[in-house]
Amino acid sequence: MLRKLGRRSVLRVGYAAVILVLILSVIDAYHIQVTISQRQVEIFRHYVDEERALTTLRRNLWLEGIYVRDFFIRPTPEQAGVLTAKLNEIEHENRQVFDHLARVSPQRSEFPTVRQKLNDFLSILLAVPITMLHASDDERFGFVEREIVPRRGELYAALIALSNADQQRLQDDENRFTDSRHEGLQRLLLMLALSVLLSVLVAFISIRHSDNLANKAEKHYAEVEQAKGELQRLSARLLEVEEEGRRQLARELHDEIGQALALLQIEVSRAQAAAVSGQAANLQDRLEKARALAAGTVQTVRDISVLLRPTILDDLGLAPALQFQVEHFLKRNGITCEYVEENVSDHLPDPVKTCVYRIVQEALHNCEKHSGASKVRVAVQQSSGILQVEILDDGRGFEVNAKGMPSKTTGLGLLGIRERAAIVGGSLEIDSAPGRGTRIALRIPVVEPASPAVPNVSDQVTA
To answer: What is the pLDDT of residues 368-417, one digit of tens each?
Structure first.
């Protein structure tokens, strides 16, 4: 999967994932903070509201007892009116308190019961100014002991129980709040751990990728430096070959053609002198020697021409030129050389013909000079738009590196072969090892020309 996507795509996805997890972590942390703060405010606000309402109810219950006590101390009609007014105010305030509690805590089932008990107690107290205005002290004391004290104690205990329940509820809410905060923190820590894990993974892949790029860059730089050095050596070698060719051509012209022409000039001069002196036999002999010198000079010129550019390559094509080269190689050094040709076109492009000819020439030269081979095989085959050339010898061979070049020698000849193959868009494979010979395989794509239409012989005969 990594190879299919590519390391760069994987790194982009990894960086995007890390950034996304970090953004989600920040959003989640902000959400947790806001939720915790809101929840905490709601919990304490609700508790304060209920506690304030219950405190008001307890205070009113305490005031009710004080107002009734003041009436019993001075039971006058004016005090009875004051008691009634005070109790009505308390009843109105209690109604407001219970309405508020019903809004803020509609789920509390205890509030309606306590409200009913407080209303019943207020109803009893509202009747006190009427029923106890002219009662005796014993009746009033008995009423207090029978009606007020038990009911007030019961109501006070109920209000205290509600406060305790609120405190317990506050404690439960705080516990749930703490649990939810822990859950949020755990989720946040999990996301941060995931972010760290992804960061480590992406960093590891990035380091590996950068190391691979650095290694590839170093390898590429080394290959470029090696290729640069090889090209420099090849250029120097080409200059040497060119200079050597010029030197050899100059030597051939001077030693062979120059001397032959000088001798020809001498024989012509002698023939001219014999003609003047009337020596017919001597004249015939001189002319025969001049003719032989001229024929030898012509052959020398042809040999030099073949060395420079074989005319057979242009006149007859690649296959006859290779056949001639193999025969000349056999005559020159006596090494057995087999030539095999199959379906080679006579209309190959000139660059291809020249490339194949020079590569075979260089390979045979290497066999003659370095390999110590006793048998050489040259095979040329053309099929499906591919020209294949193979030169195989049974010589001593050599070690090759990963690029298929000699690992211990300079190998400029083989480098020149590879460069020639690359110029025409071909590929070269060199397979060799010490003690098992050398195989040079060349593949060149060629465009096969359209075959001319061949008339039907039977039709011509019939016609």
So the answer is: 777 777 788 888 888 887 888 888 888 777 777 766 666 555 555 676 77
Q: Is this model's pTM higher than 0.90 or not?
A: no
Cβ atoms of residues 417 and 362 within 8 Å: yes
CATH architecture of residue range(s) 311-445 = 2-Layer Sandwich (3.30)
pLDDT tens by residue, 144-195: 888 888 888 888 888 888 888 778 877 877 787 787 778 877 887 887 888 7
**For the chain, how long is the longest CA-to-CA vector?**
202
Strand order of the β-sheet with 336-342 is 336-342, 375-383, 386-393, 438-445, 427-432
| Nearest C-alpha neighbor of 140 from the set 89, 92, 79 | 79
The region, left, alpha or beta by phi > 0 then psi within -120 to 50, assigned to residue 395 is beta
Residue 101 gets the label, from left (phi > 0), alpha (psi -120 to 50) or beta, of alpha
Task: Tell me the CA distances in angstroms from 99 to 46, 53, 123, 127, 158, one per residue in order.
Answer: 15, 10, 19, 25, 18
The span from the CA of 108 to the CA of 115, in Å, is 12
The length of the chain is 463
Amino acid at 84: T
Instruction: Kindly list the domain boundaries of the chain, sorted by start residue.
Output: 2-207, 311-445
Backbone φ and ψ of 388, nearest 5°: -115, 130
* CA 3, 9, 11, 16 torsion-angle sign: negative
355 CB-contact burial (10 Å; exposed 0-12 / middle 13-18 / buried 19+): buried
Gap between the Cα atoms of 247 and 244, Å rounded: 5
Q: Which residues contact 388 (CB under 8 A, 6 or more apart)?
A: 379, 380, 381, 382, 441, 442, 443
Find out whether 87 and 67 touch, Cβ atoms under 8 Å: yes
